[in-house]
Design a protein that fits this description.
CATH architecture of the largest domain: Orthogonal Bundle
Distance between the termini: 54 Å
Number of domains: 3
Helix content: 55-70%
Number of helices: 24
CATH superfamily of the largest domain: Oligoendopeptidase f, C-terminal domain
Largest sheet: 3 strands, mixed
CATH topology of the largest domain: Neurolysin, domain 3
Strand content: under 5%
Radius of gyration: 25 Å
Shape: globular
Number of strands: 5
Structural class: mainly alpha
Length: 633
């Protein structure tokens, strides 16, 4: 059982990759109302879906805190009875579900009204207390012997469904320290990486990226980069790109130091827990290992010809379409001539998401429809004061209460529609697991596995938007977005390979400066993309994935999730009748076995199967063929 952090936050979906310091977007058109005058309908109904009032929640929370005291570790050196072990496990499930409901409620109140800081702090305290209680209890589970477990299961067959949870506790047991060691590491461990993400964020936020003069006025590089990148004046595009690059370069040595020192600290903390290094720890937690990960990344480098051909074909199209002698890195975001950037009302977006994911079956569609119906109070996307306005959106859910979707402000761009599709898929899976009685301990799994399901929804929604596009220009627009989503697997692969090289270099005692990281980036990324290598205009790409700084060695999740999503996409189109049935069973099942075992059991997919990459290449090849036909038409 994973320690609780009971919100599924958005994984940023980047339809068009821009290297922008502040990750800004252009302002919304004043003539387009994405909520069609119904903004009041698009806020949470927390009373209906969580607690009748804040007073009711507070009273229930205080009672819950007392109930947490009842969950105690199994007595050391003693063999508890089967009834006692079963009762303790069932109590943990009850407490886990209740804690998730409270912490989600309190976080949602804060997201929709940032003045609710007391409630958010209370949720954090509850979560911290529960984590400590669950950690201590789960650590004690690891002391149960095979004989104990077998004897208990004979006495109480209900315990069989907890076998996987007990096995996971055993996996962690050899990495547990004594009480004093755990106390010290609990204090020092977060300092190993937390400072880096904070320093990165504050440094980036304090950087002045400047502005660019255009025929219609000055545009902020940090706030209006999309408008700059799509401006018809090549000098505007060039100036914006170079100003952004200059802003990033201003603190490049600080960023390099963060990456190197974080890697060294995380390796050190991992060794204290008796791992070889941080890679062994973090990959192992995802049922992966270094050899397996590196083999996959290098295999993707060998298969990257399809990505380079896609990039070259798009470059050729820009060259001929716009009469450019040379297509620079700052030219590749120009829209198709004559196109009006598509906008979608929330009703249109919801319909696109429902229609796009209909191939996944009636039950999937039914749960999707419930989420997206504003009458159910599970959407909060309307603008207003005191709202958290982070990029993208997120779903929050678990088993035991309705899943929801939050977005600071829904603006109606294609990006927003795909975010809605991605996050609603997480919400639907939560509700399917809840309907099938999945235990809380099995309601979350490795990020790449969970994200692969949302990744399939992204592809299906974009495919639907492409097929329904009204003309050639819009079809090109949506097909390019679809291809970008799929081909992101190659970008994630070079980023993951590069990041592992940082950790290995630091472990060998090498001092890394910004120039070293730039050289590593160019050499590694050139295996996957035409935009890198000697003389590349694309600089400082090692600053683009903020997870390098906030969630080290996380990017490999995108590699596996996108490969799996493309594999599901291929299988769905090969067998549109049988695959949805098997896929829904996988979603309903939860995470009561390692990902590879579940994939084999339900959909006949293996993480080690070469077909995983072959299938992705096949899908991208088919899309490239369609794009070439559109270019020529």
């Amino acid at each position: 059982m994973a320690l609780i952090s009971r919100q599924t936050l958005a994984i940023g979906i980047v339809l068009v990759t821009l290297l922008v310091g502040a990750f800004g977007q252009t302002g919304r058109s004043p003539t387009f109302d994405p909520l069609e005058g119904k903004a009041d309908s698009y806020h949470f109904d927390l009373q209906r879906n969580f607690f009748a009032s804040t007073e009711v929640e507070a009273a229930d929370r205080h009672a819950l805190i007392k109930r947490l005291d009842a969950l105690q570790p199994l007595p050391p050196g003693k063999t508890p009875g089967a009834d006692g072990v079963l009762a303790a496990l069932q109590l943990e499930d009850q407490l886990d579900r209740a804690v998730a409901r409270h912490t989600t409620y309190l976080e949602l109140r804060y997201d929709s009204d940032t003045r609710q800081t007391d409630g958010r702090a209370a949720g954090g305290e509850l979560n911290g207390l529960a984590n400590r209680r669950f950690a201590a209890f789960n650590a004690s589970l690891g002391s149960l012997s095979d004989a104990d477990v077998a004897r208990f299961e004979r006495a109480r067959p209900e315990l069989r469904r907890y076998r996987y949870s007990i096995e996971n506790a055993r996996r962690e047991q050899s990495h547990q320290l004594d009480d004093e060691g755990e106390r010290i590491l609990g204090t020092l461990g977060p300092l190993a990486s937390g400072w880096g993400g904070s320093l990165f964020t504050t440094t980036m936020a304090s950087t002045d990226f400047g502005s660019v003069h255009t025929a219609s006025g000055d545009l902020s590089v940090a706030g209006d980069y999309t408008a700059i990148a799509t401006n018809p004046d090549p000098e505007v595009r060039r100036a914006g790109y170079l100003r952004n690059e200059a802003g990033l370069a201003e603190h490049r040595e600080t960023y390099a130091s963060i990456l190197a020192q974080t890697a060294e600290a995380l390796n050190t903390v991992a060794r204290l827990r008796h791992y070889d290094d941080y890679a062994e720890k973090t990959y192992g937690a995802r049922f992966l290992d270094r050899k397996q990960v590196l083999a996959l990344l290098n295999s993707l480098a060998d298969a990257a010809d399809i990505n380079k051909r896609i990039e070259k074909r798009v470059v050729d199209h820009y060259r001929t379409t716009y009469g450019l002698d040379f297509v620079h890195v700052w030219d590749v975001f120009l829209p198709e001539p004559g196109i009006t950037v598509p906008r979608f009302t929330i009703a249109q977006a919801s319909q696109a998401v429902v229609d796009g994911t209909k191939p996944l079956g009636e039950q999937f569609t039914a749960e999707e429809t419930k989420l997206l119906d504003p009458a159910n109070g599970r959407l909060d996307i309307a603008p207003g004061p005191y709202r958290v306005n982070r990029p993208g959106g997120f779903s929050a859910g678990y088993v035991g209460f309705p899943s929801i979707f939050f977005q600071g402000t829904y603006s109606g761009y294609a990006y927003d529609v795909v975010v809605l599709g991605h996050e609603s898929c997480h919400a639907v899976q939560n509700m399917l697991m809840d309907a099938d009685g999945v235990l809380p301990r099995y309601a979350s799994g490795p990020a790449y596995f969970t994200e692969s399901f949302a990744g399939l929804c992204e592809l299906l929604v974009l495919e639907r938007m492409y097929h329904e596009a009204p003309d050639r220009a819009h079809k090109i627009f949506f097909l390019q977005q679809l291809i970008t989503q799929g081909a992101e697997v190659f970008r994630a692969a070079w980023e993951s390979l590069f990041e592992q090289q940082i950790f290995d270099s630091v472990a060998s005692g090498k001092v890394l400066r910004a120039d070293d990281l730039e050289a590593m980036t160019q050499q590694t990324a050139s295996r996957f993309s035409i935009w890198f290598g000697p003389g590349s205009e694309k600089k400082l790409a090692w600053l683009q994935p903020n997870q390098f700084f906030t969630r080290p060695l996380y990017r490999v999740n995108y590699v596996y999730s996108k490969l799996l999503a493309l594999r599901y996409f291929d299988l769905l189109h090969r067998d549109p009748d049988e695959f949805p049935r098997r896929y829904e069973a996988l979603l309903r099942n939860g995470y009561d076995a390692p990902p590879d075992a579940l994939l084999r059991q339900f959909v006949g997919v293996s993480l080690a199967d070469p077909a995983l990459i072959a299938s992705a290449t096949k899908v991208l090849e088919s899309w490239l063929g369609e794009l070439e036909r559109l270019y020529k038409s």
